[in-house]
Amino acid sequence: MISVKALAPGQGRQSTAIGYISGTAPPSHREPAAIDRTTTLETHRQAVAPALIAEVRALAARGWTPATGGNFSCRIDARHVAMTASGGDKGRIGTDHILVVDLDGQVVVGARRPSAETLLHTHLYRRYADVGAVLHTHSRAQTVASRLFEDAGAMRIEGYELIKAFEGQSTHETSIEIPVFPNNQHMPTLAGQVDARLDRGGTTPGYLIAGHGLYAWGCDLEQAHRHLEALDFLIDCELERLRLSRRGDGGTRA
Length: 254
Ligand SMILES: [Zn+2]
Fold this sequence. Notes:
Blueprint: H1 34-61, E1 71-75, E2 80-84, E3 98-102, E4 107-109, H2 118-127, E5 133-137, H3 140-148, E6 154-158, E7 175-181, H4 187-200, E8 206-209, E9 213-218, H5 221-246
Helix pairs in contact: 2-4
The structure holds zinc ion.
């Protein structure tokens, strides 16, 4: 499990957050005026955009962002993240699709419309000071599993070597739980449900939204990618195991 601790909104690492984004130079001066801050954030947007765009395009190439779905972000500093704008073929996005939003979800840099799900990203950055990237995809396996396990409220997975892909897990001889939340277009309600479940602990750094897709996070883009890839693989394996079991080959029924 990712090593994180719950924080009050706005609380977080003030000086080291920029270190989450490799290749991003830290601010070299204080920010005396709003215009200087905007210029600084634009500089950071330009700096983080290539890595974020490469990540988004790679996930799009897997077919995990059908029909412009999915949204993606990485932390710039304690109060700002770079995030993909609403819409757009995720396999073709450029720097103009990357916005800078503050942790209240307001666009600070960029002209495009923010994603309706911006709050689900910013809520994770506010909650965990060491979250550096959040990835949200709509793969077929994620979407099917989210419907299949909606009533159960979670997907429990055990016995797979790849459980060790999650930060803090050192053995396959354990079980992990991927929460499943009902889909909701009212993001504050959804974020509140996520918070309540994360407060109880014992989950993976990711959750499913029913009929919708998967959110995964990590301390940087690389770790978030690993968590997302592991979750999708495990979900896909479990769906296939259940499918074969139902054909009567002696496996355990769901
Ligand atoms: Zn979505």
